[in-house]
What does this fold into?
Amino acid sequence: MFLSFFISTNQKGDFYHDPTPNTIRIFSVFWKYSYIWSNFVITRLIAKKSNSILAIMYTSPLKEFSRNDYFDQSVINDDMADFSFDIFFSGKRIGSRRDLIDLFVVTWIMDDTENIFIRYSIYSGDKADWKEKITDQLKILMQDINVSKEIISGRLRYFEVKSEKYLPTEAFEKKFLELKSRMKQFQEY
It folds into this structure.
C-alpha cells in the first residue's frame, strides 16, 4: 500500500494550514463521514478551507488477480531453436480515479515445432507500471516453459510493450479465441 499526503498551497505558494476551530470542526466532520471504500482506493478528506486540502490516499499497486495457462506441452521443445512470441492486451479504467485500471494480457510463445504456450492474466490496480507487468509476465512464461535465463535476457533485451498491441474488448477476445484454436492439443495448466 502507498500512503501519500497532498497539501495544497495558498496563492503565495506557501504551505497552508490554519488550525482554527472551523478547520478542526470540518476535520472532524470529514474524518467521521467521508470514507470512500472500494477494493483499491480509500480516501479520507480531512480538511478543506479556502485553498487548503489535505488528503490521505491509499492505492493498490497493479496486482495479478487471475492467470490461466494453455499449453500444447509442458515445456518448450528446444530453447536454442528459434521461437516466436508476442503479446496483446486490453483494459479499462475503473472507479472515479483515472489511474486505476483492469488490465487483460495475453502473452504467447510458439516453438520450432509449432507448440503454442499461452498465458492469459488479469491485473487490477494502479496503472503506473503496467508495461513492466506485461514484460514480467512474458519473462515468467518463458521461465515456466524452461527457456534458459541467458536466452530470456537476450530475447527481451530490446523488447518493448507498444500501445499498438492494445485491442478493444471484442477484438481482444476474438484474437485470443483464434490463437487458442491454433493449438494442437488443448491442455489447461
Q: What stands out?
A: The CA atoms of residues 21 and 27 lie 9 Å apart. The radius of gyration is 23 Å. The longest strand covers residues 100-110.
